[in-house]
Amino acid sequence: MEVIEVIEIVTRSLYVTVIATCIATIVGVFFSIIIYLNNFPFKKTITTIVNSLMSTPPVIMGLIVFILLSRQGLLGKFQLLFTSQAMIVAQVFLLIPICMSLTLDCLNKFGKEILDTCKILQVGKKDTILIFIREIRYHIITVIIATFGRGISEVGAVMLVGGNIRGKTRVMTTYIAQSTSMGNFDESLMIAAILISISFVSTYFIRRLQRDE
């Protein structure tokens, strides 16, 4: 395996996961705060559904995205199947419930004090959302890193919608799966070492942020 190919695979993995993590975090944090600040019918049901989606097998999310992006699917006209964009979409579907669940858990623990302060100061709803984001910023960063760690290790969904095409949609996890099945353990271990290193760096930042907070 050439060094250029290794760099390409690692770069593509980071590209897909970083973009998916950013989208999932923005959507997940925003809607989590909206859900927390508003009382409406079926609020508990929605929270339960979000928490349940955390345990949904990734391959199921991949199947849903595959159907949506297939020629007969709702988004088939965009011809995104077996592209990096399809892998990003699959990861976003997978990561949003994780991000929302972690953020809602934080809000349920610390949100009441923030909300009471906003009510006393008679802060408007838009400013309240901004205050919440500022007050839980350390948690949001922790959520970003945790979500990134989950996305970078994903294999089932990205293999299904990406196809593990060499030079196009092959990422670290799909390469490890393929190489192991072919008996190329040395190459699998090399990519696995890079993946583990990324995970260790993510864990290090989580602990640093927790100490700073």
Question: Any overview of this molecule?
Answer:
With about 210 residues, the protein is an all-alpha fold. The protein has helices spanning about 5-35, 45-55, 60-70, 85-120, 125-135, 135-150, 155-160, 170-180, 185-210. Helices cover about 80% and strands about 0% of the residues. Its main location: membrane. It is a multi-pass membrane protein. It comes from Terrisporobacter muris.
Kindly summarize this structure in a few lines.
The protein has nine helices and no strands. The protein has 213 residues and is mainly alpha-helical. It has a single domain, classed as MetI-like fold.
Question: Number of folding domains?
Answer: 1
Order of helices and strands: HHHHHHHHH
Number of helices: 9
β-strand amount: under 5%
Number of separate strands: 0
Alpha carbon gyration radius? 19 Å
Main pleated-sheet profile: none
Top-tier CATH class: Mainly Alpha
Q: CATH H level: which superfamily? A: MetI-like
